[in-house]
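no rush on this but wanted to send it before i forget. theres a chain ive been looking at and ive put its sequence and its fold in C-alpha cell form underneath. please have a look and point out which stretches look like helix strand or loop to you. thanks a lot i owe you, the record is right below:
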Amino acid sequence: MSNWFQNYHAGLNKAIMMSIELAISDFQILRCFPVIFQLRPHLEQAKFVEKVRYQMKEGYQLAFLEVEKQVVAIAGFRISNCLALGKFLYIDDLVVDQLKRSHSYGQQLFQWLIEYAKNHECKHLSLDSGVQRFAAHRFYLMQRMSITSHHFSMEL
C-alpha cells in the first residue's frame, strides 16, 4: 500500500471535533465576528460584542458551529410571537465561513435551529433573505423552506 493511500485513509478515520453552542461569554461572541463579518461587512469588531449584548436584551441569541476549535458557521436568532404565526423562531443572521462551505456545516446548523425551535414550542421558523442572495435561496429551498411572502421596507 502506498504512503498516500495510508495517509488518506488515516485522515478519513480521524474524528472531527465539532460542536454547536450558544455564545454566552464576550470571548465566545467575539470569536464569531470573522464569520458574521462576511455577511455583515458594515460591522466593526470593536463594537461587535456591545451590539450583540444590546440585542440579547431583546431576545437575540448567537449560536456557533465550531470545528477543531474554529468557528465555521454562525446563526443569530430570536424567538418571538405574532398574531400571524404564533410562536416562531426568526433567523436574523445565518452564514458559513466562505472557506468552509460545501461541508454541510450550514445544514447542520440549520437542523440545530429547527430542533431548538421545536424544543421551545415554536410553530414556525422564518427568515428574510436579500433578493440578490441566490446561493442562500438555493440552500433554503433545499432545506424545504417555502417562499411565503414579499418583505417590504423603507429607510427612514
